[in-house]
Amino acid sequence: MAAGRAFFCVPSSIGATARRLAFASPPPRPLASAPHRRGRGRCCASISSSSDASASAPPPYVLTTPLYYVNAPPHMGSAYTTIAADAVARFQRLLQKKVIFITGTDEHGEKIATSAEASGRNPKEHCDTISNSYKMLWADLDIEYDKFIRTTDPKHEAVVNDFYSRVLSSGDLYRADYEGLYCVGCEEYKDEKELVENNCCPVHLKPCVPRKEDNYFFALSKYQHKLEELLRRNPDFVRPSYRLHEVQGWIKSGLRDFSISRASVEWGIPVPNDTKQTIYVWFDALLGYLSASLDDGEQASLQKAVDRGWPASLHLIGKDILRFHAVYWPAMLMSAGISLPDAVFGHGFLTKDGMKMGKSLGNTLEPKDLVDRFGADAVRYFFLREVEFGNDGDYSEGRFINTVNAHLANTIGNLLNRTLGLLKKNCGSMLAFDSMAAADGSSFKNSVESLVDKAKGHYENLSLTSACETVLEIGNLGNLYIDEQAPWSCFKQGGESAEKAAKDLVIILETMRIIAIALSPVTPSLSLRIYTQLGFTEDQFSTLTWEDTKWGVLKAGQAMMEPKPIFAKIETEAEEKDQATPKAAKGGKKKSGSKGLVEA
Fold it and tell me: Which spans does this entry mark as compositional bias, Low complexity (predicted)?
C-alpha cells in the first residue's frame, strides 16, 4: 500500500464467461446502525457498535498511514508520510482527543514472494525482517503510533474473510476471464495505450508479459453515481482540493469493475469460496485500517474491528495510491454496509535531483542515514517545513543544512541559550517576576498569542509547512525583541533598567516555553529539551495540552537550568575539513560528537 506502488488495472472488456456468484444461504441482515459520528452524513448504512457506552463516548481521532509494501526496506517517501501523520497525531493529542494512530505493513503479493526468493528466504521470513525494519525506523524518527498492523496477522485474515462474505452477499462479486499484458512490478494488468516502447511499463521500464486468468471481480461500476454524490455533498472527502478534481475526473470518465483475486499468486489470503485463488493485495491491505484496532489473540471479526475504531478520521497517503483510497475503498465499504472515512489526504512526491524517489527506481534517499547523521528533529523539521504538504518537494543536502541551522540552531536554539546565559549571570538562573506581570503593558504578549492561534489553525488544516513557519515567526519575534531591548546593557545600568531587563528575560523564556509546545508535533525531542531547560520535568512535558500555550505559566522564583545548547549546528563538509587543520586545533570549533556537529 505504500506510496510508489501502482494501482492494478481494471479490465476494459470481460469475457462472455462472466458469471454472477451464487451463495447457498440468504444474505445476512445488515447490523443496526447507530447515529453517525462526527456529525457528518454518510452515503451508506453503517455497521456500528450496539453498546450504549460506546455510542455516548467521544469518537476517537483515527489516523492512518498506508500499510507499506515490504518488497524492500523503507525509503524516505514512506518516512515522509509517517512523519507527517505523527505530527498530526501529536497535535490532536494536544487537543486532548483520544487518538488511534495506525500504521503497518502490506505483506502479500507476487512481488513479496519474488523478493523473498531473491534474498534466499521464505516469504514469511522476508516479511518479518522488512516489517521489523519499519518499526526500527519509526523508533529512530520518534514516531508514536498506537497500532501496527501486518497483513499476515491472523486477526487481519479473519477480517478480510468477513468482509469478503459481506461483499459477496451484496451481490457485488462475480467471476470472469481476463487476458492482457501484466506488469509484475505494478502487480496489475496494463492497457496497451499506457505502455512505452516494446510494451514496457512506464513506471518500471520493463516489458509486460501476456497473462490470462480466471478471476473474481468487484462491481465498481455499480457505485458510479453513489461516488459522484459523495464528492458532490462532501468535497472535503478528498484533500487537497486539486486531488479532489483528479478523483472527480476519474469517476466522470467511467468506472470499470476490477479484479480482486489472482489465480497465479500463492502468497496471499485464499479466496474463501475458492482456495485455488488468493485475494488481490489491495482488496486485502485496505482492510488493515479495520483489523489494526483488534488485539492479538482475541476472537477477531469485522464487527469487532468496526466497534473499536471506525470510521477513520483521516487517511494520509501518497498521491499515487489516491485512486484506491478515494474510489475503490469507499465503494468497497458501501458494498459491505460500513461507514466511510471522513477524509483522504493525498500528498505529493519527494524528489532527489528532480526525480521521484522510489524503491523501484533505485534512487532512494535512505532515512536511516539521515537520522544517523543529523538526528530525528532535523529530519522531521526539514521535510515538514520545506515540503508544502500536498505538493511535491525536492531534497538537497545544502538546503537541508542551511534550513535546519538557521531555524533550529540559530533562531530557536541560540535565543534560548543566550537568554538563559543572561539569566544565570544577572539573576542566578532564577526568575524575578511572573511571566504575566513581566508582560503587563507590552504588546509583545498579544503578538505571540495571535501567532499561536494562527499556528493552531494551520495544524488543524493540515498546513504543516505554514504551522512551522508561524512558530518560527514567534522565534523571530523573540530575537527581534531581545535585540531591541538589549537587556545586557540594561543590567549594567542598574536600578529600573535592570528591573526592566529581568522582566524582558522572563518574557523571552515564556515565549520559549510556548514555542516548545507549539513545535512539539514536529520536533518532539527538541521541544522536550527546551522544556526541561526551563525547569520542568519530562513527566510535566508529557501531560501538556494546547491550552498550555496560553501566556502566564512561568512564575517568580522558578529556577531555570544551566544554559546548554539544545540543538547542535550541522557542519558542512568544508567546515569539517577546516577543523582537521592545525588552525582548528589551536582554537577553532570542536566537534560535539561523531555526527559532524558543533554547538550552536
Answer: 45-56
Tell me the β-bridge partners of 68. 105
3 state DSSP class of 544: coil
Q: Say how many residues make up the chain.
A: 600
| DSSP labels, 83-129 | HHHHHHHHHHHHTT--EEEEEEEE--SHHHHHHHHHTTS-HHHHHHH
pTM, full prediction: 0.86
What is each CA distance from 55 to 42, 49, 90, in whole angstroms?
A: 16, 7, 25
Residue 361 phi/psi, 5-degree rounding, is -90, -10
Residue burial 465-477, b: 16+ Cβ < 10 Å; e: rest = bbbbebbbbbbee
Range of 482's domain? 396-575
Q: What is the CATH number of the domain that holds 485?
A: 1.10.730.10
Residue 438, domain member (yes or no): yes
Q: Is residue 368 part of a domain?
A: no
Chain centre distance of CA 144: 11
The Cα–Cα gap between 87 and 524 comes to 9
Q: Which of 206-220, 236-250, 312-326 is least confident? A: 206-220
Q: Which helix (H) or strand (E) holds 512?
A: helix 495-519
Measured between alpha carbons, how far is 435 from 212 in angstroms, rounded to an integer? Answer: 74
**In this structure, are residues 309 and 60 in contact, taking their beta carbons and an 8 Å threshold?**
yes
DSSP 151: T
The amino acid occupying position 592 is: S
Q: How far apart are CA 136 and CA 379, in angstroms?
A: 16
Burial of 547 (0-12, 13-18, 19+ CB in 10 A): exposed
Q: Report the alpha-carbon distance of residue 441 to residue 14 in Å, rounded.
A: 76
How far is Cα 189 from Cα 259, in angstroms, rounded to an integer? Answer: 10
User: Who contacts 34 (Cβ-Cβ below 8 Å, separation ≥6)?
Assistant: 46, 48, 49, 50, 55
Strands 314-318 and 19-20: unpaired
Q: Which residues of 19-54 are buried (b: 16+ CB within 10 A; e: fewer)?
A: eeeeeeeeeeeebeebeebeeeebbbebbbbeeeee
Q: Do strands 188-190 and 238-239 pair parallel, antiparallel, or not at all (unpaired)? A: unpaired
Kindly state whether residue 113 falls inside one of the protein's structural domains.
Answer: no
The total of structural domains in the chain comes to 1
- Distance between CA 136 and CA 524 in Å, rounded? 18
Q: How many CA atoms lie within 13 Å of 28's alpha carbon, on the beta-carbon side? A: 14
What would the grid cell of residue 175 be? 467471476
C-alpha cell at 35: 447515529
Query: What does the pLDDT look like over 369-391, one tens digit per residue?
Result: 999 999 999 999 999 999 999 89
What CA–CA distance (Å, rounded) separates 564 from 385?
A: 25
Distance CA(66)–CA(145), nearest Å, equals 13
Least confident window among 40-44, 63-67, 396-400, 471-475: 40-44
Joined grid coordinates for residue 536: 520542568
Helix (H, G, I), strand (E, B) or coil at 213: strand
